[in-house]
Amino acid sequence: MNVPRQPNQLFTTSIRLAAVSSAVPCSRMFVRDILDRWKLGDYIEVAELVVSELVTNAVKMTGITDPEPKTWDIRAEHVIGVQLRTTNGSLFVEVWDRIVDAPVAKNPDNNTEGGRGLMLICAMAKQWDVYRPQSGGKVVWAELELGKPAEPPPLSSPPLTVHVPGMTTAPRGATEKTAHLGLIERMLDDSRSEDAPPEA
Questions:
Q1: Residue 118 lies in a domain
Q2: What HEC string does the chain produce?
Q3: Structural domain of residue 162, as residue ranges?
Q4: What's the pTM value of the predicted model, to 2 decimals?
Q5: pLDDT tens digits, residue range 53-63?
Q6: Is 1 within the bounds of a domain?
């Protein structure tokens, strides 16, 4: 007798930010607000560390490293996308940038400053990888195991507003659309692989 599979609950939300240094604290704020809303407060600290490392790498790869960039320095190509997704007992933290090159894990010694981001992600995440969408760029993602499912916010609750400083908001343009498409492609490909029948 075939027992119908229970559909996986899927919650997802994303934000586009200018690829500047202030995107890192803004992405942490985004994670904190969303996971609190999904009743996943126990996972905020780890998810904040993971998103900090992924966004830091994305800014270094594609953005402006000047800590105080001028408004006219930020163009449509200086965009990153951050997506949170929970399904099937896992939380996925996903960051899109426009550079296809994968981040390289380093093996720093005790005297080296920095270079430990991917080591931290390896220690905290169930797995991580790089996804290259057809729309361009790459999505670096990390999967965190959840001990409980996310809870949907009440239907009557007001829409969540994350207050992001103006200099951190992504410029409107083709690259913002590409970031959105890349994150959507990653989500759809992942859901297709979950629904695929197991190989014999």
A1: yes
A2: CCCCCCCCCEEEEEEEEECECCHHHHHHHHHHHHHHHCCCHHHHHHHHHHHHHHHHHHHHHHCECCCCCCHHHCCCCCEEEEEEEEECCEEEEEEEECCCCCCCCCCCCCCCCCCCHHHHHHHHCCEEEEECCCCCCEEEEEEEECCCCCCCCCCCCCCCCCCCCHHHECCCCHHHHHHHHHHHHHHHHHHHHHHCCCCC
A3: 10-190
A4: 0.85
A5: 999 999 998 88
A6: no
